[in-house]
Amino acid sequence: MSVHRRRRVFAALISNGGIYTTGVIGRLSADVAMRVGLPEGVREVSASVTDGIHLSLSRGFAGDAKFASMHLASVIAEPSHYCPLNKAKRRFALAGLVEDERALHVALKWVPAESAQTGLDEIWVVTAHPLGRNTWQRYCRNGRLRALAV
User: Fold this and answer.
1) How far apart are CA 117 and CA 109, in angstroms?
2) DSSP helix/strand/coil, 125
């Protein structure tokens, strides 16, 4: 992707209410945290300017970045599916259907207290991207995403 295209995509993300500050954007329920495999008490999810830049540059389309930033907090608060914690990489994912034919997949990273600059356990957004109906169904079928019981 050209530098000019990247700048246009990032500008569109910012102008459409994308992620442009650092801070807590949501909180996981105790049930979701337990199913994912997080230690007790780790709930708050944070995002930063860097996450917004990554969303805009890696996806390559302003629409994808806007979609992700608009639905990020709702998927974190009420995901319908999850991918368990990979303890070696300390990463996991949440996903949810947010429109008729589209879902949002959110990759997250858990930073244990001993590794965090704050000295507290942290969860950070790594990236987020939309999934179409076919990809959503394939991820569910092959076990990449597991349903959360309601």
Assistant:
1) 15
2) strand
pTM: 0.77
Convert 115-134 to b/e letters by CB count within 10 Å (16 or more is b): eeeeeebbbbbebbbbbeee
Residue 5 host element (H or E): helix 3-15
- Position 18, amino acid: G
Cβ pair 148, 32 in contact under 8 A = yes
Q: Compute the distance between CA of residue 14 and CA of residue 115 in angstroms, rounded to an integer.
A: 30
Q: Are 104 and 98 in contact (CB under 8 A)?
A: yes
DSSP 8-state secondary structure symbol assigned to residue 42: -
- Residue at 80: amino acid letter: S
Q: Which of 42, 54, 44, 46 is nearest to 23 (CA)?
A: 46
Any residues with CB less than 8 A from the CB of 18 and at least 6 apart, and which? 52, 55, 56, 65, 66, 69
Q: Provide the 3-class DSSP secondary structure of residue 21.
A: coil
pLDDT digit string, tens, across residues 85-142? 888 889 999 999 887 778 999 999 999 888 888 888 889 888 888 888 899 999 999 9
Task: Look up tokens 């569109």; give the residue.
Answer: 12
> What does the domain layout of the chain look like in residue ranges?
3-147
pLDDT of residue 63: 65
